[in-house]
Design a protein that fits this description.
By secondary structure, the protein is an all-alpha fold. The chain has a domain of 98 residues. It is 71% helix and 0% strand.
Length: 251
């Protein structure tokens, strides 16, 4: 039991460490800045962070959410993204076990977290993140090549319909990044789960955005990336159980 608890603590710490890098991606990718070589710094005074300023979550708490140099208030996004990524890794390992699929889902979740925040702010999904997810899908196909057709259909079935909608509406009904996202995720999840992911994403988007419009006066235009990402995450972890339950109602 102690070994299991220790294992999950390590996974959480690893998750929040990756989450720290995700914050770098979220801020720099829209600005087309280098995400590897450039030094982390305060957005207000330019102070270059030391190694002891960059412990995920803990440094934020120790500094009370402020820059060590100029005391400017730091965004709550930093610890939230780190914690969310750590919790997501724990959840994936707990639900899915320790295997290659879980590793791919962890990487997928981190990519979805980055693109969701960027899309929410800019209404654009970075092409590079979709390419990264596509690479995960290709790895999935290689590791489960006997079900190659399942993943190939998954690549085409939702994205194909969305692509037609995109061209017919000239991009007004759906974004090109959303089409690519569904293609890449479909290659990773397969056709059954990507259909469920898309349906879940649409339902979540409709419900949550209507609430946001009523509560905070948001515009009717919405970024679909975050909602599709939530649908993908739910379908990846619980999609097969949900399908089994649903089909069982008719048997």
């Amino acid at each position: 039991m102690t070994a299991v608890i220790f294992f999950y603590i390590i996974i959480f710490l690893f998750g929040i460490t990756i989450g720290s890098f995700l914050n770098v991606c979220i801020y720099r990718i829209p600005k087309h800045e280098d995400i590897v070589k450039a030094r982390s710094h305060c957005m207000t005074c330019g102070y270059q962070l030391k190694w002891y300023d960059m412990f995920p979550v803990f440094s934020y708490l120790f500094l009370r959410g402020r820059c060590r140099k100029c005391s400017a208030k730091l965004s709550i996004q930093y610890p939230l993204v780190e914690i969310l990524n750590g919790i997501a890794y724990l959840l994936i390992l707990f639900v899915n076990g320790v295997n290659v699929e879980s590793l791919l889902y962890c990487l997928l979740t981190s990519a979805l977290l980055v693109l969701s925040i960027i899309d929410f702010r800019t209404y654009e999904i970075p092409f590079g993140i979709n390419v990264f997810i596509l690479a995960l899908g290709l790895i999935r196909v290689v590791t489960d090549y006997r079900n190659f057709l399942t993943y190939l259909i998954g690549f085409l079935i939702v994205s194909g319909v969305l692509a037609v909608l995109y061209y017919v509406s000239k991009g007004r009904a759906i974004g090109g990044g959303d089409v690519k996202l569904m293609a890449a995720c479909g290659l990773l999840l397969g056709w059954k789960l990507i259909i469920m992911a898309f349906l879940l994403g649409c339902i979540l988007g409709a419900v949550i955005h209507v609430i946001r419009m009523k509560v905070s006066g948001e515009d009717h235009v919405l970024a679909m990336g975050p909602y599709l990402s939530m649908g993908v995450f739910i379908a990846a972890l619980w999609g097969n159980q949900m399908l089994t339950w649903y089909l069982g109602q008719f048997l």
